[in-house]
């Protein structure tokens, strides 16, 4: 039967929306920054191009004005004919001031590129003569295209009075191709950087939210484990109570052991879930201390139900450094797994051994293929009615103690699970051999 697609929880959808919003915010900030930077670059380049054009116009107009001279009170323009300043663009016009009217054009450069209205040229020439300095202005030619004007006054050689002005007519489109190429490069570059920023922002926001995703996954796993593990003992207790309630008097005593076993099972489940939540959420660090491993295993075995099989103990004095509460949970889960699947009928079938920092739990069950151990330690993967949560928790406890959990076939049938912890660190002044028993923290 095909599995139905897993729906995302509202918390996952909110985290996904938050990641998209962070990506959008990062991209928007990048776009605004690139837009402002591009505007500054484009504006600066446009002004530099305009200033360069006006500098060239001023140079040509100044050269033309210096070549104008008066002889016998008559203006001489012969020096303008062959000079490079009056050829090409910008175009040079020379206007002479007449006493009886406005300025009159007395010279026009050989390259006439712009048909500018005479009124505009006269106006800028008058302004330069009145200001006795360079004046620039904008105008349009007869086709409506924009042009630039710059006028420089020249003086009468005999009277030193302003006699006219040299006007340079420039083209605003000069250098426009390079400017457009710069704009296109900025647009393409900004687009590429924006795309890169969007991808980078998505990756960075995902990495920054990774702890939130992990915390959510841990919470979901813990809730799933709780629901899965508690379902059976709760059903047993509810059924027993309902049967006892409908039975005649005295029937409740017959159901009390079953209810007690279900309550004990619930207590074990809750302790497992709390230990798992503590390890996965890293709420508390593992508090290691010198621990008599053989004494702890003996206490856990003594807590097994009297109605079940009693294990045969082979305990060697062993000191390790570990978190006693977590090791107690791990040993209890190994024993519970052996009792549930080991088919033990007497004490000889269940053997618990402590040797150094290792705890061996051997049963006479169907046995386990060592290659299947990773699968069995996954949640909800254990055969025989179990959930696999106990073994997965044992493996996790072993990992946080720098150890591991292994399994091998037991001679004569069954399986041997080996919980291996990190050996105790040697400390100065520690007595070798038998020493005073260490207190086991519960």
Itemize the secondary structure elements and their pairings.
Blueprint: H1 10-67, E1 69-71, E2 74-76, H2 78-81, E3 91-96, E4 104-108, H3 118-131, E5 135-140, E6 146-155, E7 162-170, H4 176-208, H5 210-246, H6 251-281, E8 289-292, H7 293-302, E9 312-315, E10 319-322, H8 324-341, E11 351-355, E12 358-362, H9 373-376, H10 389-400, E13 404-409, E14 415-420
Parallel strand pairs: 9-11
Antiparallel strand pairs: 1-2, 3-4, 3-7, 5-6, 6-7, 8-10, 11-12, 12-14, 13-14
Task: Give the structure's gist in a few sentences.
The protein has 442 residues and is of the alpha+beta class. It is built from 10 helices and 14 strands.
Key phrases:
5-stranded antiparallel β-sheet; 10 helices; disordered N terminus; disordered C terminus; rod-shaped; 5-stranded mixed β-sheet; alpha+beta; 442 residues; 14 strands
Q: Tally of extended strands? A: 14
Strand portion = 15-25%
The helix content is 40-55%
Query: How is the largest sheet built, in terms of strand order?
Result: 4-3-7-6-5
Anisotropy-based shape:
rod-shaped
User: What structural class do the secondary elements suggest?
Assistant: alpha+beta
SSE order: HEEHEEHEEEHHHEHEEHEEHHEE
What does the oligomeric state look like here? Answer: single chain
Distance between the termini: 47 Å
Helix count from the secondary structure assignment = 10
Uncertain regions spanning at least 5 consecutive residues: 1-5, 379-387, 427-442
Q: Biggest sheet: strands, sense, closure?
A: 5 strands, antiparallel
Q: C-alpha Rg, in Å?
A: 48 Å
Q: What is the residue-mean pLDDT, rounded to a whole number?
A: 77
